[in-house]
Amino acid sequence: MNLARDLSRALRPGWVMHDAGLDPDPWQTQLLVSEEPRHLLLCSRQSGKSTTVASKAVETAIFDPGLILMIAPAQRQSGELFRKAKDIYLALDDVPRIVQESARSMELANGSRIVALPGTEATIRGYSAPKLVLVDEAARVEDALYHSITPMLAVSRGRLIALTTPYGRRGWFYEAWEHGGDYWQRTKISAHDCPRIDAEWLKAERESVGDWAFRQEYLVEFVDTDEQFFSSALIEAAIDPDLEPIW
Question: What is the reported pLDDT for 208?
């Protein structure tokens, strides 16, 4: 690789997306240059969140060689994220060559590996010391799986980026977003923040899918899941934390 080009890239915010022929939004550039170790992305459908973190994976693989894991509730979902990263990588010039690849992983000449995994605790426990972990559809990832991810970062001090649309007021992602404090960096992007999504299309979509789905998928609001009989607000109002349990 060319040292001058490496330096130029390192000093150019969002270079991965630019060099791959993409035009990043300001929030995407900010995430790409972020050094935060823990980041939550609460983003609308079609806002570009997957492309952003795929670009982050590529940049990490080039400049900070090591293991990069892509995790999602299903193999198909993590496989889609991997394909985005691979397409971006193949669009770049003067990068480490790919020495081994499959449908869900690739290894580079500099020692980096990008691996897409299904969201099962047993599968995750087979890996250690990643430089970067990406959790796609994070609101739908079970708590047990999330708690099996974080110990992998203890020694490597790697980064964790979780991206999702909301999925009700439940689960580890909701708790981290609402109550995680300064432990997490947070980015929230609704459909109205994305210049590629037309306002008239959004209006028609709201009429088509209904208010509940629209608020969740496009306004990225933590609304109760549609299968709940009682609302979260009603359940919380019925709980008295000062009461002693009856045994």
Answer: 95
Q: What is the pLDDT of residues 156-174, one digit of tens each?
A: 889 999 999 999 999 999 9
Residue 33: name the closest of 17, 47, 22, 20 by CA: 17
Burial 88-99 (b: 16+ CB within 10 A, else e): bbeebeebbeee
Name the residue range of residue 99's domain: 33-237
Q: What is the CATH number of the domain that holds 60?
A: 3.40.50.300
Residues 45, 209: Cα–Cα separation, whole Å: 13
- 74 in Cβ contact with 35 (< 8 Å): no
- Give dist(CA 198, CA 144) in Å, integer: 38
Query: Is residue 110 within 8 Å of residue 137, measured between CB atoms?
Result: no
Q: Which pTM does this prediction carry?
A: 0.86
